[in-house]
Write a structure and sequence with these properties.
The complex is a heterodimer of chains A (about 45) and B (about 240). In chain A, about 90% of the residues lie in helices and about 0% in strands. With about 45 residues, chain A is mainly α. Chain B is mostly helical and about 240 residues long. The radius of gyration of chain B is 20 Å and the shape is globular. Classes of the chains: A mainly alpha (about 45), B mainly alpha (about 240). At the A-B interface, helix 1 of A face helix 1, helix 2, helix 3 and helix 7 of B.
Chain lengths: ~45, ~240
């Protein structure tokens, strides 16, 4: 199948970008939720 | 009515199934195109992703107008969420395009109208996101980025119509391109099916990014309300 690898690389690159972006948003959310917990804990201590 | 978390989970599962089937259809169901051969199959996700990127920027444009008209933060959150997701989709367009171009044109890139305007679009929305990190005060940040968001969108119609207005290296429009253009019915089905999957993916990513922005707002209010300021190390790295 001529050019099969080009199509496959393009397809996988597209999904790598989508997946990378999803992970990036997920990591930012997780970090923010951790900040939330710390802030609430400190507010509870004080 | 606000969709519940379970509804979104079901949407995510349905999206995964549709995109997986779409991938199968691209490789094994869509007929071979006569002129370009197998490499034309990139079209199904390259063009579909491009339409989604334009749509993301369009929603961001409307949300920017919404913020400037109402000064309600929710519009600003939607503007940044859809701009960032649109940028991710446009990045896919800029990566997959050259992979198609190399076997067809013999070169990875050329500065023709469509490619150049799409590259400028990428730079404009990177600038939009960078601009947001430079303004600390939330209302001012929303105002400045709202104005910039409207300005940045002006490139979208230019990019979209460039292949209609000028002779470009980029292929002429297949959809709504006039007489002699179009696709075989099976190509249309694969394109529409793949497009539905990409649109659903876009909705999921936009929703997650919006949630992040809303949570940031909540956190900032909570931190401001607390007697002690949060430690700098905790809030560091929270790009806007």
């Amino acid at each position: 199948m001529r050019n099969f690898w080009s199509i496959l690389i393009a397809y996988l690159a597209a999904w790598a970008i989508f997946f990378g972006y999803y992970v990036s948003v997920g990591r930012r959310l997780t970090r923010l939720e951790a900040d939330f917990r710390r802030l609430k804990q400190r507010a509870g201590r004080d | 009515m606000k969709p519940s978390g379970r509804a979104w989970q079901l949407t995510a599962i349905a999206t995964a199934i549709v995109t997986a089937l779409g991938g199968y259809a691209i490789f094994f169901v869509a007929p071979r195109e006569e002129t370009m051969g197998q490499i034309q199959r990139i079209f199904y996700f390259h063009a579909g992703t491009g339409i989604c990127a334009y749509l993301g920027f369009f929603v961001s444009f409307l949300a920017s107008i919404g913020y400037l008209a109402s000064r309600q933060s929710e519009w600003d959150w939607m503007a940044v969420a859809t701009a960032e997701v649109g940028l991710a989709f446009n990045t896919v367009v800029l990566v997959t395009g050259p992979i198609w171009a190399k076997p067809v044109w013999g070169i990875w890139w050329t500065w023709d109208a469509r490619l150049t305007l799409d590259f400028i679009l990428e730079l404009l929305y990177i600038a939009y996101l960078l601009l947001r990190t430079m303004v600390a005060e939330p209302e001012r940040r929303a105002l400045v980025s709202g104005v910039f968001g409207i300005f940045a969108f002006l490139d979208v119609p230019l990019s979209y119509f460039s292949i209609r207005w000028w002779r470009t290296e980029h292929p002429q429009p297949v959809i709504g391109g006039g007489p002699g253009t179009g696709m075989a019915p099976m190509m249309w089905y694969v394109f529409l099916f793949t497009g539905i999957g990409l649109l659903a993916l876009m909705a999921i990513l936009s929703r997650e990014r919006y949630r992040l922005e809303a949570l940031r707002h909540e956190f900032a209010e909570l931190a401001a309300g607390a007697e002690d300021e949060p430690e700098p190390v905790e809030t560091k790295g929270l790009s806007r």
